[in-house]
Amino acid sequence: MIWVEVLDRRGHVAARVRCATLPATIGRAWTNDVVLDDRHVDAVHARLVRDEQGALALEDAGSLNGIVTAAGARAARVSVAGPTTVHLGQTAVRLVPADAPVGPAVPLPPATRGLLALVTAPRAALLLVLVGVAAAGVAFWLGDPEAEAPRKAAGGALALAVVVGIWAGVWALVGRATVQRAMFHAHFAAAWLTLLVLELVGVAAGYAGFILDVDGLATLVDAVAAFACCSTLLAAHFALATSMTARRRAAVAIAVVAAIAGAVGLLGEAARGEFEGNDVTIRASVRPVPVAIVRTREVGAFLGETATLQREVDRLAAEP
Amino acid sequence: MRWPDGRAALALAGVLLAAGAAGALQRRAPALPPNDGGETPAVFRRFAAQVAKLQVVEVRSGAKQVTGSGFFVSPDGLAITNYHVVADLVHDPDKYRAELLGSGGRTTPVRVLAVDVVHDLAVIRTGSAPSDWFRLAPVSIVQGLRLYALGHPGDLGIAIVEGTFNGRLPHTLYPRIHFTGSINPGMSGGPTITLDGRVVGINVATAGNQQSFLVPVEDAIALLARARGAAPPPAESLLADVGRQLLAYQDIYLAHLFADSVPTVRLGGWRLPTEPTDIFNCWGETDDGPDQPYTITHHYCGTGDDIFLSSEQSSGIIEFEHDLVESDELGLFRFSALYTRELRSLATDWGLDREGDEDVSGYRCRAGNVRQGTLKGKAVLCLRAYKRLPGLYDAVFRLATLGGRRSGVITTLTLSGVSVANAERVVRRYVAAIGWAP
Fold first, then answer.
1. Which CATH fold topology does B43-133+223-244 show?
2. DSSP per-residue string spanning A126-146
3. Nearest CB to A284: which of B336, B351, B378?
4. Model-wide pTM > 0.95
């Protein structure tokens, strides 16, 4: 007994036919045991036979285009000792003896849990995207005191959605190519979830830094959060689009983000070396909270710490 | 103001007059020959030879960088000019040299003996032995008196400009005489004299439209007394002297700034300093476009003076500005965003005339929440250091009042070319003058 598998262009099995008695024929005519819908295939194109020694073989039945082996050579007869792929016309056909061994069963992938389950669930993913886009619009609007803020906020949120969509689309293509699943919605939702978390952490750090009067707290927290969130997002994309193990996903994600952070740091360092001319960069901000809960110090105490700033600019001035 | 230092070469014009004739002119008005065109030609004939053309040459290119004028004040060739004419030489003695242009294009090297950066004066040794020179002495004249400015504008040869004395400027940090006459670029450092040849002031700046400014002769007398008999100092000591003069002078003019009872203006319930002394001029405007959901009211005060350090850098600026930010339309969060944006928006277009890092470091800032009495605010202090003049800094202090849901004041004090100690002292007094007065 032998199985004949008709493969599609990607090499996937499009049809599988069992030939219990031999000889069996393969061709375009309806009288064949295996019928191929290919105009480059003859009515009776090839014949599956078992010789006197009991070996299986595929013989050309006098076809126009013949049998083409996997190596690209035309052959009148092809021995089928194990799974063998040949081309008949433009159709790939795999011949598998019934006694061909199969590999062991692969365990089922573990069920996605936590945030990955959240972004892979279509409804939750849709909700995340909607919340993300709305939050971006609101954030743009709240940060813009000009009259045209609503229009600009809507445009900004839309533009961000397009950028995130392209990002998710690229990952979906990677997933489709490597593990045959696109999961666009999951990639899209994961990216929006990351943006949401980053925004919320940034807002919280901004308020905390202002209330506690810690100069630079927001910048530090933003940097740490950006590193953690970007690593997590990248690991999530790997989980959805590759077959990497969890440990490998985490390692690669952290390495990639660290490399990007390093490059950004180097660029920043190079920019810091450039002379700013008359430009003054102030990073301070104020937040709308009751002034009673804001930590303050006497003006004199604030000015008393000018020596640190003085040392910093003296050091800059001494640089060649 | 702009500095009337020219960038064009001129040959030294005129011939030196006899010493006796000039001496006589110090004592009485000249007797004018008939039909010679009046007094101005006579003044020109008698004093033009005592005015020289100077140029600062870039050594590498061998071409002039700055031209100006100077005038002889001693028989051994000492001359007075403006500091800003020779400033590049003081800052970069290896890069520049100064020379005096004599008749026929003959040049004589010039050494700088002493400078007064605050009043914009320099005493130079020219190596020439003039047959006559100006005798400097204090003058007392009345407003409206006709004066004559002499100098070398551009490449046009020596010129004489008639004008009138209009007293000392009432609102200026550094003493200046208001001369109504057209001093032009290149005439910097030349003398402005009376009919009988008494020097009233030294040409220094112009605001166009015949508004010109002179350094009073008294400052030149003081500098000349200091320089007379002195050997040419090493170049680095001149620059160090510039730094010392800036520090010494600021100790005087900053000592009482905001110290006594400071006039205040009310903005949005806040009491804020305005016109602390008569050297400050204050201006205001309101930014309230028709579709703009907020209003920003500006109140600016400044001295309008600065000190020329080099062709790339100026100093001595004192200014402060209050911005009252208000909005009834924006909610709490959007007003906060507006307030933060205004707090961060700081444009300085002073102090440095080009993008270069030879003169100053970049700015660095510190921020913190501060309180003083009932006042609570977000304070920012920014500094940058002068590279060639250790101990001097440009300082910007900014304070945004906190607590207003729909309004707040962001006030900014700028002090350029100050020590950190002086900056701290002035900022403390400045903040003390701010208060809530609904």
1. Thrombin, subunit H (2.40.10)
2. HHHHHHHHHHHHHHHHHT--S
3. B378
4. no
